[in-house]
Design a protein that fits this description.
This protein has 147 residues and is mostly helical. It has one domain. 46% of the residues lie in helices and 5% in strands. The protein has five helices and four strands; from the N terminus they run H-E-H-E-H-E-H-E-H. Strand 3, helix 4 and strand 4 form a beta-alpha-beta unit. The chain is globular, with a radius of gyration of 14 Å. 34% of the residues are buried.
């Protein structure tokens, strides 16, 4: 997960699908550390049962492709080590992200760690997820996380 508003939209996209969802947070790209903490605190408030791999600000911004890879690799690794059937990412709810590069990274690490990648298109719930976040007074950032 990247943030609570995107999680809200992604969960809405999965509504009615027969899956058990585990939420995993790994975002070493988010800068500054204060922003990282705001997003994590909002996420934990919204989804207290999320799995957090703490990593504030350990990766310098290189480019979006690099960011997708490091985050999806860690997610795929966790999914594989914990015998999940598949994994996905809240990045796929955003119309501002490069969905093809996200899917390429997801497929690469699915093969490496043994959990399938579900590359669904969740964009239809991006705006409704943001609306719900505003209504619930959940922190919403104005940028992806990289400086």
């Amino acid at each position: 997960m990247c943030c609570a508003p995107c999680l809200i939209g992604t969960m809405a996209s999965l509504d009615g699908v027969d899956v058990d969802v585990t939420c995993f947070w790994y975002n070493p790209n988010i800068r500054p550390v204060e922003e990282y903490k705001l997003r994590l605190d909002a996420l934990i408030e919204y989804m207290p049962s999320c799995i957090v791999k703490d990593s504030p600000g350990i990766v310098l911004n290189k480019n979006c492709d690099y960011c997708y890879k490091i985050r999806l690799k860690e997610t795929a690794k966790y999914a594989g080590e914990n015998n999940f059937d598949c994994f996905t990412t809240t990045l796929l709810v955003s119309p501002y992200q490069n969905h093809e590069k996200i899917k390429q990274a997801g497929e690469k690490y699915a093969g490496e760690f043994g959990a399938a990648f579900f590359g669904g298109d969740f964009r239809e719930n991006f705006r409704p997820g943001q609306k719900t976040a505003r209504e619930k007074n959940i922190y919403m950032q104005k940028y992806c996380g990289c400086v």
